[in-house]
Write a structure and sequence with these properties.
Length: 94
């Protein structure tokens, strides 16, 4: 599920192959419209589809001249990003 609050886009529930397609379409419009922080604190499960989703949003935001920051990334997502050697491509908040 996607919820927006100002410049914060929050995801909740599982972000997996079963949900990523719907999330991709819904979120893309938001990430190209404004600089955003994507809050993942409500995400309960991730797989490689979550990584692909976020990378596609990062690319879409950059192509639109927008900035995207990922906040509260679950450890499993950070681990997947490192495993696939794309961790430097994710703009994680520190």
């Amino acid at each position: 599920m996607i919820r927006t609050d100002g410049q914060r886009l929050s995801l909740s529930g599982p972000v997996t192959v079963a949900t990523a397609g719907d999330l991709a379409t819904a979120g893309r419009e938001h990430v190209i419209a404004a600089d955003l922080v994507v809050d993942l604190s409500g995400v309960t499960q991730v797989d490689s589809a979550a990584l692909a989703l976020l990378l596609s949003w990062v690319r879409a935001a950059r192509n639109a001249g927008r900035r995207l920051t990922i906040d509260q990334a679950p450890p499993a997502l950070v681990s997947l990003a490192s495993l696939y050697d794309v961790d430097t491509l994710l703009p994680l908040a520190h």
